[in-house]
Every structure is written in structure tokens, then in C-alpha cells.
Amino acid sequence: MAEFGGEGIMLAGAGRALLLQLANPAVGRGVAEHSTFEGRPVNRLKGTLTYVYAIVYGTDEQVKEVRRRVNRAHVPVRRPDNAESPGYSAYDPALQLWVVATLYDTARTVIEKIYGPLDAGTADAMYRDYARLGTALQVPEGMWPQDRAAFGRYWDEQVATLQAGPAGIRVAHGLLYPKHTALWYRAIIPPARFLTAGFLPDRIRQDFGLPWNDRHERRFNSTMRMLSLTYPRLPRGIRHGLKDYLLGELDKDIRRNSRSAKRQGVSA
Fold first, then answer.
1. Contacts of 135 (CB under 8 A, 6+ apart)
2. How many domains, in total, are found in the chain?
3. Could you say which DSSP state residue 24 is in?
4. 189 lies in some domain
């Protein structure tokens, strides 16, 4: 993953990963009932990317900080069963496994669209690296499918049983058709919505009411061909610019927190 994990083109699949997560009813309810995602989508995306970049590329200090942030954010995301629906917990390893699985499968899908099929060694290394995104939290090492073949079976089983619930559909609609966000965000949503629909499995696309036809498919394939010809030719500094920026911001936060802790220690 370290070879491709910092590529900015991964953003093209962000909507796919998110909607696949929301298609799990428990995840959808948790996000709908405890998250400000619809009102602050950029902050949520920034947090997810910072976590991924830190786990893959970061120092021990950066890894410790993003783990602390994620675990703290997960504390209130829980609810017992009630008369309307089953409960959920953000600490549930099975739900965390699904979230990481969507990140891995989406990254693989996007990278292979741009760079072509990965050789076995690179694909295996990327797969092993993604396991760390889950095991850094509450996913036991033995729970992550043993190899890519096992993951394929797990993925097919999960996707076959997914059915987006009302809560997940409501959150997705708010993200894909925003009304109360900055103008620049609303401006980029139509192409983002198009890419999201193009990358999704057809049944999940239908669950979320995203229109798709042969004309959309041809346009999507043409877009991918164009990106595969142009994106790899960009300088690495541009392709990895977002990763470098977010890890730099993380370092600034760590230093600020350290200075604040020292001041509090002195005043105490």
C-alpha cells in the first residue's frame, strides 16, 4: 500500500467507500444518530484520510495520536437494541472490519483503474498493509481475512447481504445532494456523485437511487481512460501533496497539544 496509499487519485473513490459503509444498516444508523457528517463532510473526510496516511506512513507518535482521536470519537457511538431497530457500537470489530474492507476494496479498484492490474507481490503487500487500518483499532489480527482470496469470499458474502436502510440512505442523500454547505463544495459534488455511482456495484447504486444507464457507463469508462493516461504523469509532489499536507497538519496538532500539556503541568 505504501507505493500507492498516498496517491491523491484515491479521493475519486471516497464516495464509493462511504456509501458501501452506509449500506450496512448498523453503520448507517450509527452515522445518522451520532455524526455531523452531513454538515461537515470535509472534516470527516480529512479525519479518515489523516488516519489512513498516519497508519501507513506515519511515525509512532502520529500513529498514537490518530488512534487516540478515532477511539475518542467512537466512545459515544453506541446504542442498545430498541423496538425499532437493533443496536450498534462503533467498537464492534465486525463493523470496523467492514469499514476497513470498503477502504481496501475501493483503493484497489481505483488504483487498478488508473495503473492497471497489480502484480501479485504488490497486490499482496497492499492487502497486508490495509489490515493495519483495522488492527490498529479493535479488529483482531485473526479476523482480517487471511489472504486476498479469502477477502474476495468475505467481500462477496457481505455485498450480497447489504441493503441500505432509511438512515443510511438519508445520510447519503444529504451528502450527495447538499443544500447548506459552501458553494465550492456544492460545485464539486456533481462530478463526485458521478464517480461514486460509477464505482459502486449496481445493486448498491440502485439502493441509493443513483441514476445509471449505458450513456453514463460510456462516459465513466472514457473518464477512467483519460485519467489513466494523464494522472500517472503528474509529478509525485502533486500526486502525494494531500498526504504530505495532512501529515504536516497532524504534526502541528501534536506539537500544540504537547505545548498545552506542558503549560498545564507547570500551572498545576
1. 141, 144
2. 1
3. S
4. yes
